[in-house]
Specification:
- This protein is an all-beta fold and 93 residues long.
- It contains no helices and 8 strands.
- The relative contact order is 0.30.
- The structure holds zinc ion (ZN).
- Zinc ion binds next to loops.
């Protein structure tokens, strides 16, 4: 299970995604189409005429990556959570 790797010294390790929601987006970074409810905060950024959604860990506030929607991936949500590989680590379920 992917868990938060931010603020490791403070022992965050909050579960963020389930392994079932991981998919291959081709972007080279871990991609998920849905998150564990309550584990991720969304921050919309409409600067520069672009709509971007930053995602952060709801527990420690650490930056995780960005969410992109409506790209046409064959997933249940049509969302792509592009997560910095430095922001998560994997733990046996
Ligand atoms: Zn965290």
């Amino acid at each position: 299970m992917p868990i938060c790797a931010r603020s490791c010294s403070r022992g965050c390790e909050q579960p963020l995604y389930t392994a079932e929601t991981k998919f291959n987006s081709g972007c080279g970074w871990p991609a998920f189409y849905d998150f564990i409810p309550g584990s991720v905060d969304r921050h919309e950024d409409n600067s520069f005429g672009m709509r971007r959604v930053e995602i952060t860990c709801s527990n420690c506030g650490g930056h995780l990556g960005h969410v992109f929607e409506g790209e046409g991936f064959p997933t249940p949500t049509d969302q792509r959570h592009c997560v910095n590989s430095l922001s998560i680590k994997y733990k046996e379920q």
